[in-house]
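If I may wish for something, please sit down with the protein I am sending here and say whether tokens and residues agree:
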Amino acid sequence: MSIYLPVEIWTAIFEEVPDTHDLISARRASRMLCATATPFAFRVLFVAGTRRSAQGLKHLIESPQIAVHVKEIIYRDTGLDSKGKKLTYVRTSTIDALYDAFSAIYNLPLLETVSLTFFQSYGYWRGSDIPGHRKLQASVLDALALSFTRSQPNLKSLHLHNLHITHLGPLASPAIRTVLEHLSDLRISLLFDDTTDGSAFPAHWEHFWGTTLPERILTPTQSALISLTLHSDAHVGGDARLALADMRFAHLNALSLRRVVFDARTGAEVFILAHAQTLMRLELIGCKLPAPAYGSAHLPRAWADVWDKFEIELVGLRELRVDQRRSDRWGFNGPERRYVRAGPQMTFVEAEIGAESDAADAASLKRLHAAVAARVEAP
């Protein structure tokens, strides 16, 4: 005895199925299920850093029956080939295939999110460099700019992870600037790689934080952006010309900062407090304050002062995450040291300031967490 379910019931079922493979399997069962499951099976397209995966993405993009349902593209470069083996280099054919695929995304009328995670390692001290990955990044960004020139998408979210700072020219294109103007969610993460650029690295690092980020990336987003993520895999402060104090976002609701040094030139604290009326979610990962200079006992500013200020002024805050432990490159976990001193070549060195100050900081942070929790529980 066969059981008939109306299309509306199948639609409701498929809306709750998270596994794309299950949805694709359902499409094979019958014509009716194929038609019903297709909009859900291809809402999100995944692509890896291989030629075969890129060709598959392009095939789906160029299929009118599929393209009308795509809302998100997620690219992840793991440094592995299609068989899971570690790549020793990136083939030109792979770079070309990814360029062809991403330059065709103008065919996706409902596209809302593009998430790109590039290879996480370039320099020898982060693992073996794989020739071609920086060229691949530049090629994918070039392809996006070309596609956006052909047709402006209704993009709401743009995630760019593991960016190498010397291959970001396409972000200056007028087409990408127009896309940035309408974003509600922007996530940027940078790689600190001073091994491949030699003596030119400090200038590149300064140019990104002092020019590329504020002028080309952040300024266009100021009127529409709701959620902002700025992450670096190394500490960055005012010496890199990062200056947030004068940046204003009319509707900023969520902010995540990683390894930002809250010094006077960076203006990170001022930036956060300036958005007190709209900010509801705040995440600070590995962020630091300047420690006293060597031979001095004077602490320019304590975290206790920052947390107390946040408790008083961030009246709309409903979610707070501040990391309590640190993990270094060798996987060591220990108490978070929240103060740094400037080191060589745009680097910072963690500093201990004493148990009494640490205890005061911890107590103040605990009060801030309690205040936020009380707001959430309040009727």
